[in-house]
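G., the chain you wanted modeled:
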Amino acid sequence: MQGEKSIRRKAKKVSVIVPNYNYAKYLRRRILSIGQQTYPIYELIVLDDASKDASKTIIKRAVAEASRLKPNMKIKLIWNKENSGKAISQWLKGVEAATGDYIWIAEADDVARKDFLNEVMRGFEQDEDVVLAYSESAIINKYGILMMPNFRHSRDKEGTGHFRNSYIRSGKKEIEEIMAIRCTIPNVSAVVFKNTPEFCKYLKQAEKFKQVGDWYLYTKLLEGGKIFYNKKSLNLFRVHGGSATNRGKDHVREVERMHEYFRNNYDLTQERLGFMGVELERIKQKYGIIK
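Predicted structure as tokens:
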């Protein structure tokens, strides 16, 4: 109990945003995994993007359960009359409604281990220049069965050992070393953001992308601060047939745009430039795109 009291006394105000569209079957577990966090939740904002399933009913019930676990947590429910058609638009709507100093965008079909926030928030406590803190993710399938314990190998194809240990480092250094090659944060549910004016600004700009808006957002934020990475797999990223992973030519074009941005704005080594070329070819082959 003493440890819990200490967390409460020092806790930062975290607003949790849950954007949902037709994920009724996952919502209860998702929302309860927020209510079960060992770290206090300042505010829970659930947005439903005009779902056609039973989401609205499930949200009300699950939020009521979570409120019993976190009785001091503020609650906001936002119902769209028409579907926005874009995940980032829902993120932005949630951020604009948030009043906390930190933002956790917890996607409706993912799950968090109960110590996720307690571990990730340490990054902000250790260094006030941290603007983005995240944990390693594991993959679960549509039934919630663990499929892969972490993403480290898939994000470090060059074998540099970048994700072997937890770290805090300059955002610009992170970009130069690995983020310029590919988006190395696989799931926004694993991330907590410092709620700054720049965060909202770059989120609005990210709406211009169909596929890599998250990569753009992380990049712009990291140019103004530090990143914290926790090597523990505290976020469970659900991969299933309903996931928004329909990519293709749009994805390739947007990766090319991001690579061009990095080449124009960073003094990247020839080795990193070579890795970028290999990564682009890998994506083209994945989607069967040959010029």
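The chain is about 45% helix and 20% strand.

Shout if anything looks off.
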